[in-house]
Predict the structure.
Amino acid sequence: MFFKTKDLMTVGNIAGGIAAILVAMEGMSLPADAPRDLIGAYVFWSGLGILVAFFFDVFDGAVARALNQVNEFGAEFDNVADLVAYSVAPSFLLYFAYRRYILLPGLDAMPSVQVAIAIAVASIPTVFGCIRFARFNVRRLNVTALFIGFPRPASALLIVAMLNSHLMSVSPLMGWIGVAMVVLLGFMNLSLVPFISHHGREWSWYLKIVLNFVWFSVAASVVLGAFLDWLPRNVAFDWVLAWLCYYLFLGWTDISTETRDRIKALTSDWND
């Protein structure tokens, strides 16, 4: 039997992605005059579904090793689940957000243009994610403790955090910055730049401290904000955005020049 107990964690990953999609679809059915705060609540809960998917994704490997159930099926199943949770689900959320929640400056009198932008932006995670998925199957390169290209989970969470963070309310121009960020992330998914991974990594002492604080800050903010209402619920995504920006711009410092040169040599013919 291919399906084993540890694969229930991967089912949880898929379920989180499906929940995000369904919440975004329900949000699209809200009346045209629905309060913006209500629409924002749907954006939040859809984003939280993707965060839940990430929780299951992080621990599925640990559960598989603990139960001695590591197999090839699990690796393939996890890769397919990531496509649902980190490519398809963010596309639904992006379309919903740019159709109902985020108003792009300069397009007030051109609603059809905003619809076209919403469709284009929403297509990026799925299209680029499918390309990455196909490339992974055709040309698999497993490098211990490294991702090749910006990983789909980080990309999806960065999109979710951007849509839900308080930074989005700083200026109407943030909507356009969000569009640019989604496009950039799409191309970074297909880049050959190495990024640090948690798989098989021996963490340096300062990154161990950072990683533990990442989990604590996000988990505490979700509990205190989303469930106890002691903090603004979007604070959790403020933390996610801050930590992922750290990962995007500073995480590469933990990769040696020798390792970078080795990855460059291994992928030298990938774009031929």
